[in-house]
Amino acid sequence: MKVWLLLGLLLVQEALEDVTGQHPPKNKRPKETGENRIKPANKKVKPKIPKTKDRDSADSQPKTQSIMMQMMDKGRFQKPAATLSLTAGQTLELRCKGNKIGWSYPAYLDTFKDSRLSVKQNERYGQLTLVNSTAADTGEFSCWGQLCNGYICRKDEAKTGSTYIFFTEKGELFVPSPSYFDVVYLNPDRQAVVPCRVTVLSAKVTLHREFPAKEIPANGTDIVYDMKRGFVYLQPHSDHQGVVYCKAEAGGKSQISVKYQLLYAEVPSGPPSTSILASSNKVKSGDDISVLCTVLGEPDVEVEFRWIYPGQKDERPVTIQDTWRLIHRGLGHTTRISQSVMTVEDFETIDAGYYICTAQNLRGQTTVATTVEFS
């Protein structure tokens, strides 16, 4: 009996050894190649944070969203490229998303109230339509959303759209000009532009002097060519004066632009340089008197005059005449002289006092005065 019991214990022990041999403890098993890559749980590991600096800095800047779409064939829409080339005669339709949209387009379309152009505001978008397009319509078309507070609106810089469109027309390499001869004033303190723009994006354009006949290189330092503006004189001076024209070549054809007279203007930019002078500062009863207000300024800057005079409150009848002309002051320098003359006939006591003239241009205004006494 004891023998059988002993034998049974030996069999049980052997079976247990077989089981433990098939499933050895994990910390006892030999390491395989590539194992133990997991770091101990008690070791501090700095978590990796995704880099958001660039994204945050980008988000801090207002995102510009293009809101312009172009109507294509069969009712399709697509965002227009920065520059487009369309055939003259095509209908142009642009839409910009928003319930208050402002528009900009070639200025002459607005100046002459061209009936071919239509601008409408719909509930969700603004719409610009141009029919029977011509080469003269070549230029920048842009739109922007408006942020309004009551009747006061400002441009939403984050919602804009623009495209420069070349309207190609047979026989027209240059955007047509309303005249055959134009004047460009050269001011020493700002750029001057010879506005010979083309209707074909691939056209090669050169600038030429009429006399002495030669090509004027656009070297990128003094003169550059901008397809949206023309030839730009970066730092104009008196040596640039003369008659010039442009020449364009495209598709084996060439064309000459209108001529441009370049005149150097010696008067610096700023409010009007104004003077006032009375024909006499002491006037007898019944005499006539005139007061002259004179401005010397830039050739292409218009001046407006306003008067205040003693008999104004009593509705004293006076005559006011405004004129201007260009004068040359040596070395080819050109100046615009603008004048306003007030005439008072049959001088009376109420006409004695201060005569005040205010001259105004786009850069400011100047007020001058003189006295006229009754003698």
Automatic annotation (TrEMBL):
GO molecular function ontology, one term from the record: platelet-derived growth factor receptor activity
Ranges in coiled-coil conformation: none
GO CC annotations on file: extracellular region
Region: Disordered, residue numbers: 20-63
Alphabetically ordered keywords of this record: Disulfide bond, Glycoprotein, Immunoglobulin domain, Repeat, Secreted, Signal
Limits of the Ig-like domain: 62-143, 272-375
Signal peptide: 1-21
Residues that span the membrane, as ranges: none
InterPro entries found in the cross-reference section: Ig-like_dom, Ig-like_dom_sf, Ig-like_fold, Ig_sub, PDGFRL
Compartments where located: Secreted
Subunit and partners: Forms a complex composed of PDGFRL, TNK2 and GRB2.
Name the record gives this protein: Platelet-derived growth factor receptor-like protein
Species of provenance: Hipposideros armiger (Great Himalayan leaf-nosed bat)
